Predict the 3D structure of the following.
Amino acid sequence: MAKEENKTSRRKFLSRSARGTGLVALGGLGGLLTGKRSISAKDTVWQIDPYKCIQCGQCATECVLMPSAVKCVHSYELCGYCFRCFGYFDPNTTDFNSAAENQLCPTGAINRRFIEEPYYEYTIDESLCIGCGKCVKGCGTFGNGSLFLQVRHDLCLNCSECRIARSCPADAFVRVPADQPYLFKKRDEQI
Amino acid sequence: MIRPAVAVIPIVMVGILVPAAFGDVRVRPPEFESDYRALSTEAPPARSAGGQYADVTVLIVALTAAGYFAIYRRSRAWLVALTVFSLAYFGFWRGGCVCPIGAIQNVALAVFDSGYKLPLVVAAFFAIPLVFTLFHGRTFCAAVCPLGAVQDLVALKPIRLPRWLVDSLGLFPYLYLAAAVLLAAMGSAFVICRTDPFVSLFRLLPVGKWVQGLGQQQLRPSGGAMVAGRFDLLLPVGLFLLLGIFVARPYCRFICPYGAMLRLFSRISKLHVTITPGECIRCRLCEDSCPFGAILKPTGQIPASAHPGEKRRLALLLALLPALVLAGGVLGYAVSGLAARVEHTVQLAERVRLEETGAVAGQTDLSRAFSELGTTNRQLYSQALAVKGKYAVGASLAGAFFGLVVALKLVSLAVRRKREDYLPDKATCMSCGRCFAYCPVEQHRRSKGTLPEIMVKTEQ
């Protein structure tokens, strides 16, 4: 009988110490991750490096959000305010007016507004933009490349493994510090 | 035919040519004569993470409730109610993300990649169910996990699987855990999320539109495929649920890597669900009540002479343990090259190498993008080799871990422990409470309306 009691208390002791070990292990892991990392590592978010992006069109289809959290963004300081914008007009068109058949954008998300002869202002309606990058390709090929794709953080869910990043053929998706979440194209930065 | 038009544009434009400022653009940005002021690029701030902290609160409340219903209140009905709630909240409402199963990968990545900071919410989702399991057993599986919930609700006609099959399939979660940790630690892939069959079901309803504050956005059912592709997205979850009618909780028992960790933690839990609220009378009524085969039968008295070969077998297995660990490590090393191909760099390097040697003609999007970057092929190859080297180490360790698991499983099968009562297997029991109603002691307690023993003890 005494032996039996001894046995159960031993088992109890072992289980208790195993439990303690489990808690200490979890605590240790937590300590390791908070102590060391909170100084060196920053909260990060996903962003597109516009100089790597090749406008393959997958941003529009791969994002877990419908429509995609990737939108076309306009760097006005790079824009030539062209009469014939290669981001706005279909390359085959000869009528440079805002008729739908002349536009490159499949959703008509770019607005064209006359400023003064011969300049036109182009703005993006992000509620319509699906992030396909057609305009980005046009502007980058023939123009200044002032249109580019960016992850919009008011929309992005910041998934651990971004679906677009995973399928991006140019490895243009990078994690950037959350306090500087955009990689805008600027003048003089272009190579 | 478009080129001339490009050449015309600068000529059309008015203004002074300043070559220095002209360098980086084709078309010189204008200086406006009117009082027009150029717009500046908008940079909307990130959405707030407030909703996620609410999730952590709900998780803690749900886990507390699950422990109370399973251990103290002993009520299957309340557990089912909580299961339905968890399925609705963590499943359909939150779209199945964040979940502790996937959080394993974030933790692994944070441990091995110093540039990645583990979000607090993800850390909480990983650790809190483990801590609760240490005290209450696998109550998380019982009624909180949405993946378990949906399977528990369809387990209508469970069949009894042969012991050897359950034991062998039960090893897979450890292999899956090792692979998932390896790939996440290398920063290559989050395989658990990619292969989760249930998330497409959770995201079927467009609740995101009005619940999650996504505005006009909604979650794609399991990512990329468009709405028209829903049928093939739902095929895996459909098959799982169909299988789940006959094989209770197939994902939880034979796949879930978090379950593998919970098994370990539950084994040493302070409290655990019991079949009977009082003393087991060995009536055998509960024997077939568990759809998961998690009830251990009494062994009776085992005479020392009953199995003379047993001690020798145990000694042999213990001696074999290092050999199995080593074999696992070697096997891991052997497949490390294959595993490394998940990594982008390795894929790219292999493609570029083929192009360089002329084995394939033409370029892929990836190799074209690479050639425009200006990095030399040699640099790429050395990067890829470094990745492969890391994989060789990582996969060997993962393989050794799995070898150890297999060895320990064999040892545990060779060890007999005397049991006098019907007891839940603390590792595989998911605290669902189905067995309660089968126990005549429990029926007696319910008819008298007395509290379970543990509640009486706690109240004293």
In short: Chain A touches chain B through 80 residues (CB under 8 Å). Strands of chain A lie at 44-48, 65-66, 70-74, 110-116, 119-124, 147-151, 173-177. The radius of gyration of chain A is 27 Å.
